[in-house]
Specification:
With 215 residues, this protein is of the alpha/beta class. Helices cover 29% and strands 31% of the residues.
């Protein structure tokens, strides 16, 4: 069954939220950084039923809208357990980066870990989990069909930062190498900037090419 992907760009940091839906009117939300009202309007106008909310990592620009959506739709929120510390310090992240907005930081989540191979399997959704640390310890990427939601691991013409809390320069190199071993035609839906593909980044992303060539 085919899926539809709606991208909503959130706030001044231009973070990408993705709403995945299928012909059964089921939906999952990935990285709702803010703009919860716009997300709700899209869900309502398309008569979708939300199954869950997933986060690639716990930085506030990716989870700022989670709690309101969890309360509104009464659905689980999925996050890797190794990012729980960042979640607890989300208010500090808001202060450091001067992020404006009345965000409610989620207190509970369904923990993901390396033993879980499938996050959500219902109807047409069979979302695979890849633990891809580096930007944070608990950073993950989600794969559904030929679409990878990579968070802040791999971006168009860029790679993720490692100078933020939980960042690890060695780990991100390992994660990027693992990602590029997948089918090269896979579409990459990053946490910021435009959609790209693995094959394009291998050809044109200078930072990624340097890491791959390091071996």
């Amino acid at each position: 069954m085919d899926i539809s992907i709606e991208r909503i760009v959130n706030g001044p940091m231009k973070q990408n939220c993705y709403i995945l839906s299928n012909s059964n009117k089921e939906a999952v939300i990935i990285d709702p950084g803010s703009e919860d009202k716009r997300i709700q309007d899209f869900i309502q106008s398309n008569e979708l039923s939300v199954l869950g909310i997933l986060a690639t990592h716990a930085h506030l620009d990716h989870i700022g809208g989670v709690q309101k959506l969890v309360e509104f739709y009464n659905v689980p929120f999925y996050l890797h357990s190794m990012d729980s510390g960042i979640l607890r310090r989300a208010d500090l992240y808001k202060f450091v980066f001067k992020i404006k907005g009345n965000f409610k930081v989620p207190k509970k989540f369904q923990p993901l870990d390396d033993k879980i191979k499938t996050v959500l399997k219902k109807g047409a959704f069979n979302i695979q989990l890849f633990h891809t640390p580096g930007h944070t310890k608990g950073s993950v990427s989600f794969l559904i069909q030929d679409h990878m939601f990579s968070g802040d691991l791999l971006l168009k013409d860029k790679i993720g930062r490692t100078d933020l809390p939980g960042g690890d320069n060695i780990a991100i190199k390992y994660s990027l190498r693992k990602l590029t071993q997948l089918q090269q035609s896979i579409h990459i839906h990053p946490g910021h900037y435009d959609v790209t593909t693995i094959v394009r980044e291998l050809k044109q992303n200078i930072e990624l090419r340097r890491i791959i060539n390091e071996g």
